[in-house]
Amino acid sequence: MPLDELRELLARRARPDLTTAIDGVRICKADHTASPQTAMSGTVLAVVAQGAKRLALGDRVHEYGAGQYLIASVDVPVTGHVIDAAPGSPTLSFGMTLEPAAIADLLLQTGPGDLPRSAGTARPGIAVSDAPDELLDAVVRLLRLLDRPRDRKALAPLIKREIHWWLITGEQGDVVRQLGLADSSLTHIRGAVRWIRENYTRPFRVEEVAQLSGMSVSAFHRNFQAVTSMTPIQFQKHMRLQAARLLLANRPSDITGVGHRVGYDNPSQFSREYRRQFGAPPSVDAVRMRGAADPAAAALP
C-alpha cells in the first residue's frame, strides 16, 4: 500500500533540518512529543504517514494523523506540535510548498465544466482531509526520486504538478483552486495578510487594508476571519508577539527594547499580551526557548 512505502521512505530520508534534495519538499521525523511551537504555516501540503500532529489557528484546532493531509492556503501564524510519537515509533510527515502559478496553469488547461465551481467566499486557511490513494501514490513517487538524482530534475516538476492536480480535484479542491485564481477572495486575503506581515510594527486602520484588498470593510472583515480565524488587529498582534519571541531567543535581557521594536510602546502591555499568548513572561519564555529549540517540533509539515 502507498502508506507503507511512504513510511519507509520518510524514515530513511529524514534529515535533522527537515530539508530534502527536492526544492520545496520537507520531511519531518519526530521521536517524541513536544510542547507547542509557534511558526508561520507557509502555503503548504502536509501528509502524515505515521503518528499525529495538532495545529491551532486562532480558535480552531486541527488534528491530522496517518493517512490524512492538511492544506494551509495562507501563510499565517500557527501553533503546532507532535502528539503521538515515541522512540521506535516516530511521527513521520511529508511537506510540500504549494505553487499558485502551477495551480493557475492547471486551471487554464481545464475545461470550465471539468471542475466544480469555486465558492465565492473565502474558506478557512487550514483544512484536513483523508488522503486518497492517488495522492499518496504521487507523493511516494516524488520521494523515490531522492534515490534517483539523474531523473530528479526532469521528473520532480511533473510529479509535483500531478500532486497539485489531485489537490484541486480533491475534497479541499475549492480552497486549492482559489490559490490559482487572481481575483478570488482567498487571493485578496492573502494579499492583506502579506501587507500586515510586512507592516506589523506600525498602527493601521482596517479600512485602509480593506481598500488595498479591493473589498468593502464588511466583506473584508468577513473573509479575513473566515480564512485566518482572527480579526486583522488580532492577526497583527500575533505577528508582533511571534516576532518578539524570535528576537528574545537571542536577546533575552532586552525585553523593553524588543517590545518597542515590534510595535509596543507600553512595556506592561507587551509583557501582559506576551504571557497570555505563550503562557509565560518574556524573560522566562526566552530562557525556555533557548533550551528547547527542536526543528522536528515545528508546526508543519
Structure commentary:
- With 301 residues, this protein is an alpha+beta fold.
- 47% of the residues lie in helices and 18% in strands.
- The protein is built from 12 helices and 9 strands.
- The strands form 2 sheets. The protein has a 5-stranded antiparallel beta sheet with strand order 1-8-3-6-9. Strands 2-7-4-5 form a 4-stranded antiparallel beta sheet.
- Strand 4 (52-57) and strand 5 form a beta hairpin.
- Helix 4 (149-168) crosses helix 5, helix 7 packs across helix 8 (217-228) and helix 9 packs across helix 12.
- It is globular, with a radius of gyration of 20 Å.
Task: Give a brief outline of the structure.
By secondary structure, this protein is of the alpha+beta class. The chain has helices at residues 2-13, 100-108, 133-144, 149-168, 173-179, 185-198, 206-212, 217-228, 232-250, 255-261, 267-278, 282-292, and strands spanning 25-30, 37-40, 44-50, 52-57, 60-65, 68-72, 77-84, 91-97, 126-130. The mean pLDDT is 89.
Number of helices: 12
Structural class: alpha+beta
Strand order of the largest sheet: 1-8-3-6-9
State Rg: 20 Å
The low-confidence parts are none
Mean of all residue-level pLDDT scores: 89
Largest sheet: 5 strands, antiparallel
The helix-strand sequence is HEEEEEEEEHEHHHHHHHHHH
Q: Report the strand count.
A: 9
CA-to-CA gap between the ends?
22 Å
List the helices and strands and how they pair.
Blueprint lengths: L1 H12 L11 E6 L6 E4 L3 E7 L1 E6 L2 E6 L2 E5 L4 E8 L6 E7 L2 H9 L17 E5 L2 H12 L4 H20 L4 H7 L5 H14 L7 H7 L4 H12 L3 H19 L4 H7 L5 H12 L3 H11 L9
Antiparallel strand pairs: 1-8, 2-7, 3-6, 3-8, 4-5, 4-7, 6-9
Helix pairs in contact: 1-3, 3-4, 4-5, 6-8, 7-8, 9-10, 9-12
